[in-house]
Write a structure and sequence with these properties.
By secondary structure, the chain is of the alpha/beta class. It is built from 14 helices and 27 strands. The strands form 7 sheets. The protein has a 7-stranded mixed beta sheet with strand order 15-13-16-18-27-26-25. A 6-stranded parallel beta sheet has the order 2-9-1-10-11-12, sandwiched between helices. The radius of gyration is 23 Å and the shape is globular.
Length: 492
C-alpha cells in the first residue's frame, strides 16, 4: 500500500486527530510504514522532538500511534495564539514571527511551499502519509491561500474523507453543507464520510446514512461509536470540556483532589493527564476561587500569555487565595513564572517588569530565543524525562531544588513539561502532597502511564478496524479519489 489520505472534519473537535491516529495505528499493525502529517496546526499544546523542534502535541501522539519518532516535517507550521488577534508562527519547529491574521496572510505563499516540501519528504520516506486537516474545509472565507485542507488536497492529489461529530447534532446537514460549499475541483476529492461519536443503535441511523449517500453520491465509510474515556492529547481548550481521565480511588481509599487554574491562554494542559490517570487522584479545571475550597493541591499550568494570564488570575481574586493558602501549590512553566517575585517581559507581553505572586524566591526574564529541549534528571531518587518550551528564564535565588526549579514552604515550581508522565516520580510527588495535607494516598501498583497511552491508541485502532470500511480506505490510499464523483450545485 502506497499513497496518502486527508482526514478533514465538519468542525473543530469533530474527531480528526483521533481518527487520524486510529488509522495510523491500524496501518502500522498491518506492517505499513505510515506517518502522520498536519500542514498547519493552531494549538497551545505542543511538544519537543528529539532534535529540538516544537510541533503540535497531537502529531506527536499520532507518530506514537504509527510507531515512529516524531519530526518537524509532521507539523511544519504551528500557530500559537497569544491573544485573540496575534499568534506566534512556528515553522519546522522554530518560531519565526508574531503576527496578526492579516500579516499571516502575507506569509502564506512561502509557508505553502514549506508545507508541501515537508509532505513530499514524508512521502519519500514512508509508504503512507495520513494527513489531518484543520478546522473545516468549508471555511470559505479562508479557502484562498488554504494550506491545511483542500489546498493541500489539491496540491498533493489527496483523497479526502470528512468526519462529522453526530454528538453535536446536525451531522447530516454539516456533511452535505461541507461538500456543497466547495468548488467543483475540491468536491472531486471528497471521497466519503465518517460519522463519529454515535450513541445508540446504528439501525436507527441507517435511513439517514442511505439518504446522505444518495444526496451526495459519496459513501459513508463507517460509524464510530461514542467511546467514553478517550483523552489522547487534544489540540486546544475545547478538549477541557470533555471528560478527563479519572480512574477514581482504590477501594476503601480517599481521593487526592487537584484544582487546575483554567487560564484563558492555558497551554500544555496535557501535563495533567498523567495525574488524572493515577488511581486515587481527581483533577478538575477551575475559573473561580470558590472552586478550590476543597482541593489538596492547586496547579498553575502553562500559559502562552504569562503576564496577561497573571492579570486574569488577579482579576478573579486567585492571588489573594494563594497568598492565604493552606494547601500546596505547583506552577509549571508559565505557572511557575507567575509564582516568582518579578517578571521582566519585553518579548511576549512587552509589559516590562511586573510584580509576580511572590510565592517563590525567583526572578524571571523573558529571552527572545525560545528554549526548546528535552532535559533529563532525577528527583526523589527517581529518573525524570521531560521537555521545555519557554521564553521566560527563571532564576531561583533560594528554596530547595525541585526538578529544574525550586520549592519553598509547599510551593513548587518547574519549567519541565511532561514530568508527571514518569510513574515513580509522579507517585513520589503525590505521596509528599498527601503528607503535607494530612490526606492518605497509597500509590497503586500496576500499569504505568505509557502503557495506558498505548492502550488508548490500540483502542482507536480497534474502533477503526471494527467500524470503518477498511477495503475502501485501502483503495483511496492506493488509487486516490474515485473518478466521476457527482458534483453538488455550487453553493448548495
Amino acid at each position: 500500500m502506497r499513497g496518502g489520505l486527508l482526514v478533514a472534519g465538519t468542525t473543530s473537535d469533530a474527531g480528526k486527530s483521533v481518527v487520524t491516529a486510529g488509522i495510523c495505528r491500524w496501518l502500522a499493525r498491518e506492517g505499513v510504514r505510515v506517518a502522520p502529517f498536519k500542514a498547519q496546526n493552531m494549538s497551545l499544546n505542543s511538544m519537543v522532538t528529539a532534535d529540538g523542534a516544537e510541533i503540535g502535541r497531537a502529531q506527536v501522539m499520532q507518530a506514537q500511534a504509527a510507531g515512529i519518532e516524531p519530526t518537524a516535517h509532521m507539523n511544519p507550521i504551528l500557530l500559537k495564539p497569544g491573544s485573540d488577534r496575534r499568534s506566534q508562527v512556528v515553522v519546522r519547529g522554530r518560531p519565526i514571527a508574531d503576527v496578526d491574521a492579516l500579516e499571516y496572510r502575507e506569509l502564506k505563499d512561502r509557508l505553502r511551499e514549506v508545507a508541501l516540501d515537508s509532505y513530499r519528504a514524508l512521502r519519500a520516506e514512508y509508504d503512507v502519509v495520513v494527513c489531518e486537516g484543520a478546522g473545516s474545509p468549508a471555511e470559505i472565507n479562508l479557502r484562498r491561500g488554504d494550506i491545511a485542507n483542500m489546498g493541500l488536497a489539491r496540491a498533493a492529489g489527496l483523497p479526502v474523507i470528512v468526519v462529522g461529530d453526530i454528538d453535536r447534532g446536525g451531522v447530516f446537514a454539516a456533511l452535505y453543507g461541507t461538500v456543497g460549499l466547495l468548488d467543483a475541483d475540491d468536491q472531486r476529492l471528497v471521497s466519503g464520510f465518517v460519522i463519529n461519536k454515535f450513541r445508540g443503535a446504528v439501525e436507527l441511523l441507517q435511513p439517514g446514512l442511505d439518504q446522505i449517500e444518495r444526496l451526495t453520491g459519496r459513501p459513508v465509510l463507517g460509524v464510530l461509536p461514542w467511546a467514553p474515556g478517550i483523552w489522547l492529547d487534544v489540540e486546544d481548550s475545547l478538549g477541557l470540556d470533555a471528560a478527563r481521565p479519572d480512574t477514581g480511588p482504590p477501594a476503601g481509599e480517599e481521593t487526592l483532589r487537584i484544582g487546575v487554574l483554567r487560564f484563558p491562554r492555558i497551554s500544555n494542559f496535557t501535563d495533567l493527564d498523567a495525574l488524572s490517570c493515577e488511581p486515587g487522584v481527581s483533577v478538575r479545571f477551575v475559573t473561580a476561587p470558590g472552586e478550590l475550597a476543597d482541593v489538596d493541591l492547586v496547579v498553575l499550568p502553562g500559559s502562552r500569555a504569562t503576564v496577561d494570564d497573571l492579570g486574569w488570575l488577579r482579576e478573579r481574586g486567585f492571588d489573594r487565595l494563594l497568598a492565604e493558602r493552606r494547601t500546596p501549590v505547583l506552577g509549571i512553566c508559565g505557572g511557575y513564572q507567575m509564582l516568582a517575585r518579578t517578571i521582566t517581559d519585553q518579548v511576549e507581553s512587552k509589559a516590562g517588569t511586573v510584580e509576580g505572586l511572590g510565592l517563590l524566591p525567583v526572578s524571571v526574564t523573558f529571552a527572545r530565543e525560545k528554549t526548546l529541549r528535552r532535559p533529563s534528571g532525577a528527583h526523589y531518587g527517581h529518573p525524570v524525562h521531560a521537555y521545555e518550551i519557554h521564553h521566560g528564564q527563571a532564576l531561583a535565588e533560594g528554596g530547595e531544588p525541585f526538578l529544574d526549579g525550586c520549592e519553598q514552604a509547599g510551593v513548587y515550581g518547574t519549567t519541565w513539561h511532561g514530568a508527571f508522565e514518569n510513574d515513580a516520580f509522579r507517585r513520589a510527588f503525590l505521596t509528599e502532597i498527601a503528607a503535607r495535607t494530612s490526606r492518605r494516598f497509597v500509590p497503586a501498583p500496576g500499569t504505568g502511564f505509557a502503557a495506558l497511552r498505548e492502550a488508548q491508541l490500540d483502542l482507536l485502532a480497534d474502533l477503526v478496524t471494527a467500524h470503518l470500511d477498511l477495503d475502501a480506505l485501502r483503495r483511496l490510499i492506493d488509487e486516490g479519489a474515485p473518478a466521476g464523483l457527482p458534483l453538488l450545485p455550487p453553493g448548495a
